[in-house]
């Protein structure tokens, strides 16, 4: 049996201004979670995110949507990328009082081949994750550099700030 080791790092910050301009959103909550590069990563990420988002005061329906987005982003990283994988969650508050959840997953960049699950199933059994994330998010992001890639989604959120 293979041993699964999860390295957890957690950083939570108090509200801080993200720039000198008072119109810039304020970071109300922030957390980073390293995840195992293993099929169990999505479940670990969901449990971690649920605990945080509940503590941050998000409403149940928003948490449900956020957990689906987190699950899809993490699953894509494990199935299509190289390690390491980390989940980044941040809640920002704008001057108008609106709040947003930013969920990002970073990875080690594209893998030379798909993961075991994707490789084992028919084409019509996978490939909907991007559409699910896009349907739930206000907008999505992606970026890459020499050290890896990051995919994210921003959702409306009702949080205590």
Task: For this entry, give a set of tags.
161 residues, alpha+beta, 4 helices, 30% helix
Report on the architecture of this protein:
This protein has 161 residues and is an alpha+beta fold. It is 30% helix and 29% strand. The chain has a six-stranded antiparallel sheet. β3 (85-93) and β4 form a beta hairpin. α1 runs antiparallel to α2 and α2 (60-80) packs antiparallel against α4. The radius of gyration is 16 Å and the shape is globular.
Determine the fraction of residues in helical runs and give it as a percent range.
Answer: 25-40%
Morphology? globular
Structural class: alpha+beta
| Number of extended strands | 6
Q: What is the ordering of alpha helices and beta strands?
A: EEHHEEHHEE
- Our count of helices gives 4
The value of Rg in angstroms is 16 Å
Tell me the strand order in the biggest sheet: 1-2-3-4-6-5
Main sheet makeup: 6 strands, antiparallel
Distance between the termini: 44 Å
The low-pLDDT segments are: 1-19
Strand content: 25-35%
State the oligomer. single chain
Mean pLDDT equals 83
Topology:
Elements: E1 16-17, E2 26-35, H1 41-55, H2 60-80, E3 85-93, E4 99-107, H3 116-120, H4 129-136, E5 139-145, E6 148-157
Antiparallel strand pairs: 1-2, 2-3, 3-4, 4-6, 5-6
């Amino acid at each position: 049996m293979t041993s699964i080791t999860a390295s957890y790092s957690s950083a939570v910050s108090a509200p801080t201004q993200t720039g000198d301009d008072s119109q810039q959103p304020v970071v109300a909550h922030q957390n980073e979670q390293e995840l195992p590069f293993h099929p169990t990563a999505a479940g670990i990420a969901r449990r971690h995110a649920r605990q945080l988002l509940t503590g941050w005061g998000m409403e149940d329906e928003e948490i449900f949507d956020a957990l689906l987005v987190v699950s899809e982003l993490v699953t894509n990283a494990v199935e299509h990328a190289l390690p390491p994988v980390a989940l980044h969650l941040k809640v920002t508050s704008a001057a108008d009082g609106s709040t947003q959840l930013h969920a990002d997953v970073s990875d080690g960049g594209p893998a030379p081949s798909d993961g075991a699950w994707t490789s084992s199933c028919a084409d019509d059994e996978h490939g909907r994750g991007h559409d699910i994330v896009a349907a739930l998010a206000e907008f999505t992001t992606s970026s890459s550099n020499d050290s890896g890639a990051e995919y994210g989604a921003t959702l409306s959120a009702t949080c205590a700030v």
